[in-house]
Design brief:
Layout: E1 15-21, H1 25-41, H2 45-64, E2 73-80, E3 83-90, H3 115-122, E4 125-130, E5 136-143
Antiparallel strand pairs: 1-2, 2-3, 3-5, 4-5
Length: 146
């Protein structure tokens, strides 16, 4: 008699982390460090490096382009099923970057302008969600199953 063994794979439990950080270099650095620490604690060290780079770029953009005096930016990390979602929300909804596919490379000698190109290269999906006023969220997703 042949018996078939069926293995059921359960999706990992949803995990979430959210923090408010100051729109400063220190806040952007802390966002990157917290991302690496949480993903390591969640058992996702392979994804931690790409996620930390994405967070570094999005947090730097929140610091430079989304900064409003007296208002923090928010970092949110969630794992649902086989997807890691990174969200950085700032309070400059009026300052919206170009979306996926619309980011243009900077001039060769430019010192800035490569952040969203890095996000586009490392993330499986990314985008911009407006609101609620006065906020905007730039998000990126990494597929955990490759």
């Amino acid at each position: 008699m042949n018996q078939e063994i069926v293995r059921t794979q359960h999706a990992p439990a949803e995990r979430a982390f959210t923090v408010l950080l100051s729109p400063t270099r220190r806040g952007a650095r802390l966002a990157r460090l917290l991302t690496a620490a949480h993903l390591g604690a969640w058992g996702l060290p392979a994804e931690a490096e790409a996620a930390a780079h994405i967070v570094a770029e999005l947090a730097a953009n929140a610091m430079v382009h989304g900064r409003v005096k007296g208002r923090d930016f928010q970092l949110a990390l969630t794992v649902h099923g086989s997807t890691l979602r990174i969200e950085v929300t700032d309070t400059r909804g009026d300052s919206v970057p170009p979306g996926p596919g619309a980011v243009k490379p900077p001039e060769d000698d430019a010192e800035t302008g490569r952040g969203l190109l890095i996000v586009e290269a490392l993330a499986d999906h990314w985008g911009i969600a407006p609101g609620p006023v006065p906020r905007k969220t730039v998000w990126a997703e990494i597929n955990l199953v490759r």
